[in-house]
Design a protein that fits this description.
This protein has 530 residues and is mainly β. The chain has one domain: Porin, CATH 2.40.160. The protein is built from 7 helices and 23 strands. A hairpin with a 5-residue loop joins strand 1 and strand 2. Helix 1 runs antiparallel to helix 3.
Length: 530
């Protein structure tokens, strides 16, 4: 437990901040020193834990580049209730996340350079399986010992997920401790049923576990492969817990409690949430928002993968999506994979209640640039071509959203994901076109630098200038570096940089100059899975 001593020592050395001095602490120099200190202590913790390991094989879990987790070790079948717990498996994780977000030009009362640091981890326990039945519980914690002033929490961008803004604003602290997973599971050779708090991965729902705590849901899910060459997953999800929340909340309702000045952070406050779908408006119509998902993937034709997805919130909106990818072997270990995705959104009352813009600002006197301001009917089409050789890849992607309505997707799965979405970008507003180039390379497999992976993206985002609530056009460059430490299985570091260059002279329908979206986003994280 030497690592715990190091972390406690580090936290104990935090200087007492004086009123009005937090902005100085947020300077780049101080921020970098804290990052280095935290990561050094983290490395010591992981190294000592790794030194105690006797198994030189794979760790119990492996992180993918998109932060989803592969379980290499799972509990086995048992013969009694006692063995369910005796032969269960613990999965531990230490993690550190640091963020620095700099605007090219701050806007008084609207934007400000911001930073955040999160320390924490998780402990997940899975029981053995008795006649196919088992249980899982996952406790996640996050602490933000160094931070901006409490009254600046609303300025946080990428770093907002290391804490709960509603808790900070209401004086309830900067730490999070959440039982984000707690479900009963039945599994057989071709079926998996889960009831309770869980991660559910589909086109528009995802754990998106890139910060401290994953996005999870309460509900029932089913996964089956009974049909040959076909996988089916479906779910009824009654509640959601976004990454920066300490409790589960509505899946498609924006907080607007007049008795709570910070209620906007109490319900679904995702960056892609439709802010016109307020809880009071849904309650007035007797709408109890529930998320229903069904997704089918078929691979019965060699080299062809076809996906169909339906995601709906009854009485509000539903989305149907089809996707196809075809893999072509052109020799020399190279495969070319063209793909296409078509998404259609059908309005059921969401447009009438909140309008066609997810900003929620449409009124009878102001259509905010939407031809049919009270309809959420809309569509999105995307296409890509990927070239793969081993661990190296290249992709050219394109997407276009019809000039009808914004796409509703506040569940951390992204409509343009895998095609044109760059880090932290939201490009599914009505009338948006995007082109993106992506290249990835494993330098370790080329003998250049052991364990180092690199990914670069460059996106051109063309938004509708007329719409006041949509960003000005921008060019986005992102660079990801992932360093896996072979001497300590389960330990890896990841650095991400995003540079956005936006138009500073775009004019909306009202003749107002749009804010310049230019900014820089720096992220550094460390993970140790044991």
């Amino acid at each position: 437990m030497a690592w715990l001593g190091w972390l406690l020592f580090l936290i104990g050395r935090v200087p007492q901040r004086k009123k009005g001095k937090n902005r100085e602490m947020g300077g780049t120099g101080m921020f970098c020193r804290w990052c280095v200190t935290v990561l050094v202590c983290f490395f010591i913790a992981a190294a000592q834990a790794g030194a105690a390991a006797t198994d030189g094989g794979l760790p119990k879990r492996t992180l993918k580049s998109n932060r989803t987790i592969i379980y290499n070790t799972l509990p086995q079948d048992v013969d009694s209730v006692g063995e369910m717990f005796d032969r269960g498996v613990f999965y531990g994780r230490l993690r550190v996340n640091t963020f620095r977000y700099d605007w090219e030009k701050e806007r008084a009362g609207a934007t400000r350079d911001n930073w955040a640091i999160g320390l924490g981890g998780s402990m997940i326990y899975k029981t053995g399986f008795l006649h196919g039945l088992g249980m899982t519980a996952g406790l996640y914690v996050s602490e933000s010992p160094w931070r901006m002033d409490d009254n600046e929490v609303g300025y946080l961008k990428s770093g907002k997920d290391v804490l709960c803004r509603h808790s900070v604003a209401t004086g309830n602290g900067h730490n999070m401790a959440v039982l984000a997973q707690a479900f009963i599971q039945y599994r057989s050779e071709k079926n998996d049923i889960r009831v309770g708090r869980q991660i559910f991965e589909s086109l528009l729902t995802a754990s998106n576990d890139t910060k401290m705590i994953p996005n999870t849901f309460e509900g029932v899910s089913v996964y089956t492969t009974l049909v040959p060459d076909t996988s089916v997953r479906a779910a009824l999800l009654t509640r959601q817990k976004l990454r920066d929340h300490t409790s589960f909340h509505h899946v498609l309702a924006y907080g607007d409690d007049v008795s709570d000045p910070f209620s906007k952070w109490s319900e679904n406050d995702d960056s892609a949430m439709h802010k016109g779908l307020t809880l009071s408006r849904l309650d007035a119509r007797g709408i109890d928002d529930r998320l229903v998902v069904a997704e089918i993937v078929n691979k019965s034709i060699p080299d062809l993968s076809v996906m169909a997805n339906c995601t709906m919130v009854p009485k509000l909106v539903w989305t149907g999506t089809g996707e196809a990818n075809y893999s072509i072997d052109i020799g020399h270990g190279i495969r070319v994979v063209p793909g296409v995705r078509y998404l259609r959104q059908f309005d059921r009352q969401a447009g009438e209640i909140g309008g066609a813009s997810i900003a929620g600002k449409i009124t009878p006197a102001d259509n905010r640039g939407y031809d049919d301001p009270y309809s959420m009917d809309g569509s999105l089409v995307a296409a890509r071509i990927k070239v793969q050789k081993g661990a190296d890849s290249f992709m050219l992607g394109w997407s276009r959203v019809s000039d009808d309505a914004d796409i509703i997707a506040p569940w951390r799965g992204f409509p343009t994901g895998g095609y044109t979405r760059a880090m932290g970008r939201y490009n599914w507003y009505a009338g948006t076109r995007t082109v993106m180039v992506q290249a990835g390379c494993d330098l370790g497999k080329h003998g250049v630098f052991p364990g180092l992976g690199v990914m670069v993206r460059y996106a051109l985002q063309d938004f509708d200038d007329a719409k006041p609530d949509v960003s000005a056009d921008s060019r986005v460059l992102t660079i990801d570096l992932i360093q896996r430490v072979s001497a300590i299985p389960g330990l890896e570091f990841k650095a991400r940089v995003e540079i956005v260059r936006g138009e500073n002279d775009a004019v909306d329908m009202n003749g107002a100059v749009k804010p310049d979206p230019s900014c820089k986003d720096y992220r550094l994280e460390a993970n140790y899975l044991f």
